[in-house]
Design a protein that fits this description.
By secondary structure, this protein is mostly helical. It has three domains: about 60 residues, no CATH class; about 80 residues, no CATH class; about 170 residues, no CATH class. It is built from twelve helices and two strands; from the N terminus they run αααααααββααααα. It starts with a helix and ends with a helix.
Length: about 325
């Protein structure tokens, strides 16, 4: 095996298997053509010394192979700002929840401040590591399965203004709306899944901090579907922040999520009560509620939740009808 054969073999080890043989033939042709041109230029035959000089110019096999393989990233430079934004949102939400728990702990009669602080740090670290790992997993999956989303923008000297796509005003993206949606969803998912004890009425009884849970077991039976829908909304918002605008595909995905939200709201509206509080418990808690006031408050809470679910159905249905009409109209025009 001569030097060129050995060089091509070593280069091949670092090439993707699918296109390895084609690339090896292309690289061999490039090396041989360069050798031939250099031989004519110098007026000397192709020998081992000339081959060594040419191969040195091409560089190590790893370097040569890298020039034929696109750069690989766990999270590409284009996606990293969005990744970092999400990490900061999640970390801020987690820290805020931990501080609330810490202040509640400080309200206990026999509170051990040092132990509570240490426990908060441990819980925050564990939660942050878990959240960070899940965020990395989501972005890595996007990078792997949809690599075009992570591709860097064209180089400035290759940019052609005539090739810019026309963006309709309806396709413009509100970054604030997407960031707000991600933040709201992260807060909701964190509270419902990991800190449900914070959702309710808190009061001090005999020096002890007590909490009456606000939501019933019926509500938490819907939690897997809430996780699915809000998780899908977070992923869609990430896609939109990376793409920078709405497209037909993301519009249809958004409609699918809205359909699921309307269906879930309908089931929750028709099902058993989502509130676990009862007037007697609130009155016995001695936090300023009479039985009459407690009854009125719980009635208002139930009406508020039902009103919210009805709004989700009505506004979601209106948005779906409007969006389908626009998508089909745009398709008909094309």
């Amino acid at each position: 095996m001569n030097l060129i054969d050995r060089y091509i073999s070593h280069v091949g080890k670092h090439l993707p298997e699918k296109s390895r043989e084609d690339l090896k033939r292309e690289i061999r042709s490039l090396v041989e053509d360069t050798l031939e041109d250099r031989s004519k230029e110098l007026g000397r035959p192709v020998d081992e010394a000339l081959t060594v000089d040419v191969l040195k110019e091409f560089g190590r096999p790893e370097k040569m192979a890298a020039s034929y393989v696109p750069e690989r990233y766990l999270i590409s430079p284009r996606m990293f700002p969005i990744f970092w934004l999400v990490v900061r949102i999640v970390a801020s939400v987690l820290l805020a929840i931990m501080l609330v728990k810490l202040f509640i702990g400080f309200g206990q009669a026999d509170a051990n401040y040092a132990q509570l602080l240490i426990q908060m740090v441990i819980d925050f670290a564990a939660g942050a590591i878990s959240a960070f790992g899940n965020i990395v997993l989501v972005f890595a999956a996007i990078q792997y399965f949809i690599p075009e989303l992570g591709q860097q923008l064209d180089k400035e000297d290759e940019w052609n203004p005539l090739k810019m796509e026309k963006i309709e005003s309806d396709d413009e993206l509100s970054r604030f709306e997407q960031v707000f949606g991600i933040t709201f969803s992260v807060i909701g998912l964190a509270l419902f899944n990991f800190f449900p004890e914070l959702l309710g009425f808190g009061f001090v009884n005999n020096g002890e901090w007590m909490m009456l849970p606000a939501f019933s077991k019926a509500f938490f039976s819907y939690l897997p579907w809430i996780n699915l829908i809000w998780g899908a909304e977070i992923i869609l918002s990430l896609f939109l922040l990376i793409q920078g605008r709405w497209q037909a595909g993301t519009r249809w995905v958004s409609l699918g999520i809205k359909f699921m939200s309307i269906a879930l709201a309908g089931f929750m509206l028709a099902g058993p009560s989502l509130i676990s509080l009862n007037p007697e418990e609130l009155a016995r808690a001695e936090i300023g509620f009479t039985l009459e006031n407690a009854t009125r408050l719980i009635s208002l809470l139930e009406q508020g939740i039902k009103g919210t679910l009805i709004l989700v159905i009505v506004l979601g249905g209106f948005e779906i009808a409007k969006r389908i009409y626009k998508l089909l109209s745009a398709k008909a025009v094309k």
